[in-house]
């Protein structure tokens, strides 16, 4: 019976695993191979150049500018998004006053916060093009003009453009984590919070000493997901930024440079090398984040 069950499981998984190998793992190996060539995207056998493409990356200022932008995203995007999401989740589930009950209409608030997740990234980019317009017709500049202030080039000022795009990323992402953290907080027995309140713990102390440790697994997963998202940003940067990554490369990211190098300059081998570098940067972050944030699991049973 056990042998028959094993054969059935192997037979059942064979096709999905084969599909995964062909359509997921296969392209990875193909990208690694192309990164060692000078292929220009046309028919014919690519010339093997070894690690020349990676040596070029070391001296490529555009590449390092994009890496720096990812470093900024990696710090700011998770911290701001998770901070806002935790704050609103705690208010939704435990209210703003005393006691442990959530605010009235918490389901409605969760739906409102989650709404940006329903919108396509391109639609969000088009929406915020109207918000960030550099003239008085822009939503933000219209508000500034109403109080007597001058227009601001939200996406045209090199020192401001990246932060404007990060704000959009936070706006779109925070709703998902509000719902995620709300579910985690709802799973914590109310008796625990009531016991903390009886012991005289303030709401801030209760949050950091009780709520946060009990939902650490959710927070860890959210941190990793947002960190991986920080290594992307292609769609919003392509739609919102001036000249796709501008002004003067102030908002460029690696996925955008990979696309530009491959499909604008027809340097597919060099673009593949960038892709491989991005793959290992993302993988390294995920492994380190899981390692550093690992804690003993708290059993509520």
From TrEMBL:
It holds the Pfam family BPD_transp_1. InterPro entries: ABC_transporter_permease, MetI-like, MetI-like_sf. PROSITE patterns: ABC_TM1. The keyword Transcription regulation does not apply. The chain crosses the membrane at residues 7-29, 67-92, 112-132, 160-180, 222-242, 268-290. Residues 67-289 form the ABC transmembrane type-1 domain. Its main location: membrane. It is a multi-pass membrane protein. It comes from the Bacteria. The keyword Transmembrane applies. Keywords: Cell membrane, Membrane, Transmembrane, Transmembrane helix, Transport. It is found in: Cell membrane. Belongs to the binding-protein-dependent transport system permease family. This is Carbohydrate ABC transporter permease. It comes from Actinokineospora guangxiensis.
